[in-house]
Amino acid sequence: MVKPFTDPRAAARALLAVESLSEKEGQFCGGLVYRSAPLSDKQANWLSILLARHALPPLADGGAHD
User: Fold this and answer.
1) What is the domain partition of the chain in residue ranges?
2) Contact 14/54 with Cβ under 8 angstroms?
3) What are phi and psi of 63, to 5 degrees?
4) Rounded CA separation 18/61 (Å)
5) What pTM does this model have?
6) Alpha-carbon separation of residue 27 from 1, 3, 21 (angstroms)
7) Average pLDDT score, the chain
8) Model confidence pLDDT, tens digit, residues 39-50
9) Contact 44, 63 (CB under 8 A)
10) Are 25 and 15 in contact (CB under 8 A)?
């Protein structure tokens, strides 16, 4: 079993390596890589959707983002 991401920034970096990432998705992930503030619920939800869409492991604890 693949281990879930424990850090949203690590998840965003993994998404940036996906070839099928759209420009909008890439801009979002690029912003997350350098974000120091916690994610909003909406951002955490979008990140979870992108991880599932691109067949990457989910965020640990159902998407904890603080």
Assistant:
1) 8-60
2) no
3) 105, 25
4) 23
5) 0.86
6) 29, 25, 10
7) 90
8) 999 999 999 999
9) yes
10) yes
3-state SS, one letter per residue, for the chain: CCCCECCHHHHHHHHHCCCCCCHHHHHHHHHHHCCCCCCCHHHHHHHHHHHHHCCCCCEHHHCCCC
**Which burial class, exposed, middle or buried, applies to 9 when counting CB atoms under 10 A from its CB (0-12, 13-18, 19+)?**
middle
Query: For tokens 């912003």, what's the residue?
Result: 31
| Amino acid at residue number 17 | A
Q: How far apart are the first and last CA of the chain?
A: 25
Length of the chain: 66
Q: Are 59 and 47 in contact (CB under 8 A)?
A: yes
Task: Summarize pLDDT for 13-58 with one digit per residue, the tens.
Answer: 999 999 999 999 999 999 999 998 999 999 999 999 999 999 999 9
